[in-house]
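Can anyone check this?
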Amino acid sequence: MLNSSTIRHLEHALNGRTLNHKIIANNIANADTPNYKAKSIQFKDSLNQSIKATRTDDSHIPFSSESDNTPLYRVKTNNQTSYSHNGNNVDVDKEMSKLAENQLYYQALIQRMNGKMSSIKMVLKGGR
């Protein structure tokens, strides 16, 4: 029950959002560091790859994106831009916006996980 694909996907998503929070916080902390380049997490590419490769039967060999050890996201460093004279490319306003957006996604995932756990709890209590 706790090893269902929904819970596993929610766990991956929460881990991704936690990593995203750390990356954004690190970017904000280094907003004045010379030559620091902003980092970001890439969800969409990984999501598109995982959508394209779906297993239709449990007896099939799993795709690499379906395994538990493969992260569904990757960290990318933006080396193309520079917003400051010291070579730094962190835009604090943009990072704060990303932080608020990430928090909303995180809260939505937590609510979904709580709903799933409530369903399991109800089943364990015999539907009461």
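Reply from J.R.: I decoded it. The mean pLDDT is 84.
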